[in-house]
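Two proteins, back to back. First:
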Amino acid sequence: MKSVKLNIVGMRYKNVGIGIIDALDCERITFVPEPENRNDPNAIKCISDGFHFGYVDRANAIILGRVLVGHTVTSISKNWSDPNKIKITVYFKPIEKANSPTYSDPLIDIGHTAGIYQIKFNSSSDDYFYYGQSIDARKRCQEHVRNLNQGTHQNVTLQSGWDTNPSSFQFKVVEVCPSDLTGLDRQIFLFKREMHWISNCAGYSANRIKGDLVLTIDALSDIKSLRETITTVINELKACRAYQKEKLGEVFINLGIIYGEKVRSTNVLTWLNKTRYGMLEIQPKIDESHMLFNDLHNALTLLNNQVKELEADKRFIAAFPKITPALSEYDTIDPKNVETYLGILETYKKYGSIRFANVKKGKTTGFAINFDRSLETTLSKSTISVLKKGLPIRSEPADQSQLQNSRKKKPWWNVF
């Protein structure tokens, strides 16, 4: 005999004293679902001799609600109680269905194939549709039928329909998954197509979620492999961006736009963005009137933002698919997170096996070209021309020795 342990709560809101609680005969308790409850549609009232004295606790109300569909309570025992809670154990058994018709094979049209399956049935003169996905549609539908026959199906709508009109149930595969997909691509395909069929249901929907990303063993293996690959690419790109920030910082210093004792090529942007110096005694000199100041400042900011985006993508990839809590009790993942994940994969796929060491040596010209083009949207043509020529232009003439030293250095733009 099966059982469920639960708590009865809310007695103090019903002004139920400890004396009534102690004298309560648990065998006379009846459970009545209260779907119209504004605070919790899964709420279940506890009634004894017509007196509503409490509720099943929220965590167990959902479980008991599923049990009450297709089962009958045989006995109830009280474990312990206090003024705020009564802990009980409810024993139950499946409802016998003497007049229910039997089927030799209700899944005759379902094959062992990966795809989207449909369960259609009639309840209260209305047609209902349930859509699901599986790498073996027949096996999954067999599980549905077994649970429905036992009265233990988690979907209350399906279970209620089966209990009242099992002969109306029809099973079929509505879309087959392509056979040439990898484990992860297959599961993402099934996830997207399941959402499509649920969203475009022709009648009343029996689904409680928009879709489910089912991560099979091979899909999880693909995610792990992709996580390692993408993380490596991101780390290399971060190193490249940091190197490019450093070289652009050198341009600021070589052109005399910023100079001071504490200024380094790696901290130029920090100084440019600083608005409060506090107790700092040394402040760098910044020539904001320089003809290239705005262009170069925007370019440096662009590179810094790209580093931040890389770090955000890295954190997302490391956490996927456990990004955020489930949208509801039944959802497993936010569909937006799947789209974000696919977008990240597509973004970094084009970089291939980028290596910072090669970029620094000027061997990976393709990557350098992509980087140059990204800067062209920020830099003006005149700035690009100056950078390519390596001219240390200032608004005011700089010290001649500084100009001569700066000309000896390899122009930043030519490091690629």
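And the second protein:
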Amino acid sequence: MTKIIEFIAPKEYLDHEEKIVYPEPIKLHMSDWYKKLKTSWEYPTVKSCIPFLESMTTGYALKVPQEMEIIVKNDKMEIRLPRNASMFEDLIEPHNPIKTPKGYACLFMPPLNVEKKDYEILSGIVDTDTFPMYVNFPFKMTGKSKKVTLKKGEVFAQCIPYKKESWSLKVRANKDSKRVQKLKKIFFFSYIIDNYKKIVWNKQRWN
């Protein structure tokens, strides 16, 4: 059964704000460099790597709700908002709180495998099934620039909901004989291309 994640905002905000700032499946925001990349049997690239692809299409994109500037001066950081910004918290994090089904949390991180920016949020996990407050997104400056403009609608975070479960680590020897290991390898590489995609991949859908 499909799970639901809710991004909650004031009704007045939803009635008037542009949808370019709404959270969306992050698969809609693939990097241009990846889109332009080619791959073939003769010259394979990361474009044919499903694990790499899935890291960029898993979860949801969180966006900057309004244009803002980050200015670093004398080791101090200043955030400049539009002059009509009346309530800092509501405008910076309008699609908050974030709610997931019972037993599910969210991992928040910088978007995976994208072009580096001059800033990035610090990764964190929030129990969004029970946490009733706004999720904060602390960030750090990563480039040399002392002034960075965040555009309205720009993706600043990747949100991945997941089920919280307990795990235990175990290290063991491979029980398969060398013959069986070889047969598994032959079976896995039985297609010319897309072996992982055709044999292993259990594709998730993010809508």
